[in-house]
């Protein structure tokens, strides 16, 4: 299975793109501004979107992508997310005030957008990959996702702070090989990280102690804020010297 990183920054500016990943050719994981670098033809091939939560940097390009592919598809795009996230999309995005309601366009019977509620512990199979929602802790209802290709499992944390339930779910995965985990703030902003329920380097490295088989898992750091990305990554590497840690890069392709 192939995961292509369209965007993995915690902000915008220059070449920075916010969180979005393409699983195979037909499945988006989050829909941040990285989606905007896809061609229209690539967008038109997307059948499924799995959202970790409803914050803007993870959903920003979903409305415009649907608008782009209207008339180019004969089947809906299915958005999978927890019920709270789907309700936010209905109430605050696809509400005719912010953006047209694509769950009723071009008609309710042949709509471009379909919502599929997916709660923690549920699994969907897409193109031979089993996708399972895992528990995390953020300021809004959110999930992580485990992607099991059969050969290996990759987990993407989405936005989170330390959560024992998350690490227990990871430790139950026998073939976990890759963990993509956020670290939004440098240690000098640990207070802000705690308030907004994100990781800082010290908080992340402390939490990694709960990982049962760290020698088997590559840890890839995502969601670095642009202003402090170099400092934050340096702090993660210095404090996490005993782990296999690297920075997730925009444009990177992960095979698993």
Automatic annotation (TrEMBL):
InterPro entries: Metallo-B-lactamas (IPR001279), Pdiesterase2 (IPR000396), RibonucZ/Hydroxyglut_hydro (IPR036866). SUPFAM superfamilies: Metallo-hydrolase/oxidoreductase (SSF56281). Transmembrane segments: none annotated. Pfam families: Lactamase_B_2. Coiled coil: none annotated. Residues 17-208 form the Metallo-beta-lactamase domain. This is cAMP phosphodiesterase class-II:metallo-beta-lactamase superfamily protein. It comes from Chitiniphilus shinanonensis. The lineage of its organism: Bacteria, Pseudomonadati, Pseudomonadota, Betaproteobacteria, Neisseriales.
